[in-house]
């Protein structure tokens, strides 16, 4: 920050996703000092993660470095760190990077910390069925998907070969539909003829959901269209199928009538649910009556603030506002609304008691099913096929950050959609094993630190004597 003064209004923004970045950019010309703190160095375009996972795009194309995006915006300082505490009473946010703690004071706070994958209380499923929320997730999935074909080529055991060539995507929302379609296309087109003992197109791709329909928010007609298209590509769609266990070998499924069955599969992907950042609960607990919903989202006031704190805004996937879906537009519009109020307050024109409520403008939703085929819903208008796919293509390019990224994405799409090849097919053992290795290291570390932590605790006899 070059022009920081002690008296300037201090805005802290937590998160560098759609909500966080929009908030910071909307305050570009405001007379404020902004600190943006996020646990990643990038602004991630989550809607295209599945293309990183299936070798179409590189991670850099969908995740530009936030500090480079904001290089020219002089009133913002970008900090890497995990927010570990928010103190609403004293107006501070504490973030942690390795062993370094930073306490950042604020006059206004915008919390856009988003959501994580939810395993509905079965977090151990994550070991074998990664979700798709981060770049790490997408790269791990790429490693697992392409690695499964490699292992199938090597094994001599037909049952093991079948297991390696069975891919199960759990959750038939947009992410599940897009990923299942892309795994099928990868096998059918890109990998065709590249192996000697297996035929990649013989693989089984299964899209599974406990709900009775594909893409439920898009309505029965579009959901059925997407399902039929997937089926025509060879994807098996299994509905009313509740996954009750996930292990190394495969998954266990319970049908509606209570019967259980197994699918032996090496590669499983979890795209079934979301859980809001724990920062939501942390904030709600410090207010006089703000609640969180079942997914941990903050039930905000009509002006997106929390009770008793008109300067603390919660936006994006972390806010619960009736009728606002957990989509990029919800985060973008929420961030613009919140910064609009901050700008008004700087001019002395904001009265928290008479603020007009946040209004969401529904710009619709869409999902690609395969190359040249998508489904889209805008208000009452429903579209499917090539036109919907073109609309999907155009809109994703518009919202991708950076001209260079747009250009290289267009090139990558041209190569993939008009030809057979994909530019990002490299996999490394880090992709496949790093998460599990990190979990193990962290567990060992906390085990090693346990005696020290215990030594820090007052012994019961000490406390009794105190
Ligand atoms: C695979 C996938 C596909 C999707 N497809 C679409 C789509 O096609 N169309 C659409 O509109 N929406 C789509 N979405 C949803 C959309 O991406 C989200 O609604 C949107 O990203 C929400 O924005 P946000 O700013 O609230 O959160 P996010 O974009 O998730 O950003 C959260 C930010 O908070 C940071 N953070 C979290 N916790 C902490 C902490 N403790 N300390 C510091 N920083 C923290 C993170 O690092 C991140 O920068 C998709 C989502 C996923 C996962």
UniProtKB/TrEMBL annotation:
It holds the Pfam family Pyr_redox_2. Residues 445-466 are annotated as: Disordered. Its EC number is 1.6.5.9. The keyword rRNA processing does not apply. It comes from the Bacteria. InterPro entries: FAD/NAD-bd_sf (IPR036188), FAD/NAD-binding_dom (IPR023753), NDH-2 (IPR045024). Keywords: FAD, Flavoprotein, Membrane, NAD, Oxidoreductase, Transmembrane, Transmembrane helix. It catalyses: a quinone + NADH + H(+) = a quinol + NAD(+). Residues 10-334 form the FAD/NAD(P)-binding domain. The chain crosses the membrane at residues 386-403. Belongs to the NADH dehydrogenase family. PANTHER family: EXTERNAL NADH-UBIQUINONE OXIDOREDUCTASE 1, MITOCHONDRIAL-RELATED, NADH DEHYDROGENASE. This is NADH:ubiquinone reductase (non-electrogenic).
């Amino acid at each position: 920050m070059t022009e920081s003064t002690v008296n300037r209004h201090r805005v802290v923004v937590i998160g560098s996703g759609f909500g966080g970045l929009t908030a910071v950019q909307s305050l570009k010309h405001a007379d404020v000092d902004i600190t943006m703190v996020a646990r990643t160095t990038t602004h991630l375009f989550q809607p295209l993660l599945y293309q990183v996972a299936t070798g179409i795009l590189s991670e850099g194309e969908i995740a530009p470095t936030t500090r480079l995006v904001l290089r020219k915006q002089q009133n913002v300082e970008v900090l890497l760190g995990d927010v570990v505490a928010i103190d609403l009473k004293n107006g501070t946010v504490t973030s942690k990077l390795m062993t370094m703690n930073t306490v950042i004071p604020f006059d206004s706070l915008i919390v856009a910390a988003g959501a994580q994958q939810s395993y509905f209380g079965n977090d151990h499923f994550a070991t074998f069925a990664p979700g798709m929320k981060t770049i790490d997730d997408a790269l791990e999935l790429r490693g697992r998907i392409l690695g499964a074909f490699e292992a199938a080529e090597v094994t001599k055991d037909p049952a093991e070969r079948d297991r390696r060539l069975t891919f199960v995507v759990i959750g038939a929302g947009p992410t599940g539909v897009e990923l299942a379609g892309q795994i099928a296309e990868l096998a059918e087109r890109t990998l065709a003829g590249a192996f000697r003992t297996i035929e990649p197109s013989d693989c089984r791709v299964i899209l599974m959901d406990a709900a009775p329909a594909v893409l439920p928010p898009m309505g029965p007609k579009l959901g059925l269209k997407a399902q039929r298209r997937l089926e025509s590509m060879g994807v098996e769609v299994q509905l009313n199928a509740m996954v009750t266990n996930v292990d190394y070998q495969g998954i266990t499924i319970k049908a509606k009538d209570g019967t259980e069955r197994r699918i032996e599969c090496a590669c499983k992907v979890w795209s079934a649910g979301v859980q809001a950042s724990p920062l939501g609960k942390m904030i709600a607990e410090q207010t006089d009556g703000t609640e969180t919903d079942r997914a941990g989202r903050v039930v905000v006031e009509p002006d997106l603030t929390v009770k008793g704190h008109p300067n603390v805004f919660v936006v994006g996937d972390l806010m619960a506002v009736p009728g606002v879906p957990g989509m990029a537009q919800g985060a973008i519009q929420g961030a613009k609304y919140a910064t609009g109020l901050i700008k008004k307050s700087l001019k002395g024109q904001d009265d928290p008691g008479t603020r007009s409520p946040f209004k969401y403008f529904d710009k619709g939703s869409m999902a690609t099913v395969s190359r040249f085929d998508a489904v889209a819903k805008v208000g009452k208008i429903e579209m499917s096929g090539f036109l919907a796919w073109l609309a999907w293509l155009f809109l994703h390019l518009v919202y991708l950050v950076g001209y260079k990224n747009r250009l290289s994405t267009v090139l990558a799409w041209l190569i993939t959609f008009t030809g057979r090849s994909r530019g990002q097919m490299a996999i490394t053992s880090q992709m496949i094993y790093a998460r599990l290795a990190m979990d193990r290291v962290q567990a060992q570390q906390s085990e090693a630190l346990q005696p020290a932590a215990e030594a820090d605790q007052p012994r019961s006899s000490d406390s009794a004597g105190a």
